[in-house]
Amino acid sequence: MTIPTDPSYGYTEMDSEDARAASRHYWDNEAPAYYAEHGEFLGDVDFCWCPEGLRESDVRLLGDVSGRVVLEIGCGGAQCARWLATQGATVIATDLSAGQLAQARRLNEDTGVPVPLVQADAITLPVRSESIDIACSAFGAVPFVADSLALMREAARVLRPGGRWIFSTTHPFVWCLPDAPDANGLVVFHSYFDRRAYTEHSAAGEPLYIEAHRTMGDRIREIVAAGLVLVDVIEPEWPEGHDQVWGQWGPLRGQFVPSTSIFVTAKPH
Ligand SMILES: C[S@@+](CC[C@H](N)C(=O)[O-])C[C@H]1O[C@@H](n2cnc3c(N)ncnc32)[C@H](O)[C@@H]1O
């Protein structure tokens, strides 16, 4: 069994500015490689919630989107937004990273399903209050912001009363486990209660990649503090026959513990 000891990463207190800078740097540089590795699995016009392969066309967590104004937060290549457009939604796709949005622009042309793309930090969306019917995010922004309460509040601000905000993110339990899809990833090695951000940094100590952590209780508390109602939490099980590994997500760990959580929330009328 290998417990990671690489000194180029660790756990640090992270403010919003540092997290934003690290994420922009990382996703701007990684966008082509990320698409090359995961693009086929995601589909250019498809809404995939997570590495377990849960697709919106099957689970319909957003409900009927036809005629709705839908905001995607942290859209990456905007695959989800493009699928939503084919279902009759009016979509706006937002992301922090110019590199990711360049992929999205290319896919807009290649697929012939163009969606509007806006560069924006999820915490300060250039969107009018109470103008959105449904906000959604598939692993966009939520794992990467230092202040996820601010993100919950921002999503609540843009939603009209009765609107829904639904997002997938890393399951909090994953925090305890090494970043490995094989048997090395099946040992609890880190405290679930350590809220410092996982950080990869340069030799000069600059943060190059960050992922923030919240416990399950923290997530629920932040949703409630933002004035939203928690409707459901989905912990997708690993499907039989699905053998594609994505980072530390894979069929072995998937037999034992969840790696994704999807929060379904609503803004009260
Ligand atoms: C794992 S990708 C997910 C994108 C897409 N849903 C997918 O499945 O490929 C995470 C995305 O979140 C974006 N992101 C990270 N921090 C963000 C922030 N503060 N505001 C908006 N987007 C952010 C990144 O640029 C990246 O495109």
Automatic annotation (TrEMBL):
The keyword Glycoprotein does not apply. Keywords: Methyltransferase, Transferase. It comes from the Bacteria. The keyword Methyltransferase applies. Residues 71-167 form the Methyltransferase type domain. GO terms for molecular function: S-adenosylmethionine-dependent methyltransferase activity. Pfam families: Methyltransf_11. GO terms for biological process: methylation. This is Methyltransferase domain-containing protein.
